[in-house]
Amino acid sequence: MNAYPIDHVAVAVSSLSDAVPMFERLSGASGSPVEALPAQGVNVVFVGSVELLEPRGPDTTVARFLDRRGPGLHHIAYRVPDIREALRQLADEGYRLIDSEPRPGAGGHQVAFLHPASTGGVLIELVER
């Protein structure tokens, strides 16, 4: 069994321009430039190891998350050395995969998600840098 370090935590927000200053103030870190991820329906800013997710439209998964739950913790991401191998191992161990194949994520990294139904209710992202 491989152990993976935490890469980042992601917080869903309604507005990056409203949220970034607070996270910058609390962490002392500067926010990254806004990165648009149209395929995932979000705009992203990293402030240290916190990823802020802003929906790009009302019909996106993050917009629906905000409608149901309001702003808050969206997922926890773990860094893996080989995302395909990690997905294979986790599927073999019974974890339910949202993504059976990696997809492009923020910063050009490969990402994949595990379904919260198999992870104690927490959305888990795997990140290969």
Short précis:
The chain is built from 3 helices and 8 strands; from the N terminus they run E-H-E-E-E-H-E-H-E-E-E.
Question: Explain this structure to me?
Answer:
With about 130 residues, the protein is α+β, with helices and mostly antiparallel strands. It contains three helices and eight strands; from the N terminus they run E-H-E-E-E-H-E-H-E-E-E. It has helices at about 15-25, 60-70, 85-90, and strands at about 5-10, 35, 40-45, 50-55, 70-80, 105, 110-115, 125-129. It has an eight-stranded mixed sheet. A hairpin with a 4-residue loop joins strand 2 (about 35) and strand 3 (about 40-45). It starts with 5 loop residues before the first strand and ends with a strand. The model has no long low-confidence stretch (mean pLDDT about 95).
List keywords for this structure.
8 strands; single chain; 129 residues
The biggest beta sheet reads: 8 strands, mixed
Rounded average pLDDT: 97
Number of β-strand runs: 8
Strand content range: 25-35%
Shape annotation: globular
Rg, please?
A: 15 Å
Quaternary: single chain
Provide a count of the helices: 3
Distance between the termini: 20 Å
Question: What series of H and E elements makes up the topology?
Answer: EHEEEHEHEEE
Low-confidence stretches: none
Helix content: 10-25%
How do the strands and helices of this protein lay out in sequence?
Blueprint: E1 6-12, H1 16-27, E2 35-37, E3 42-47, E4 50-55, H2 61-69, E5 72-79, H3 83-92, E6 103-104, E7 110-114, E8 124-128
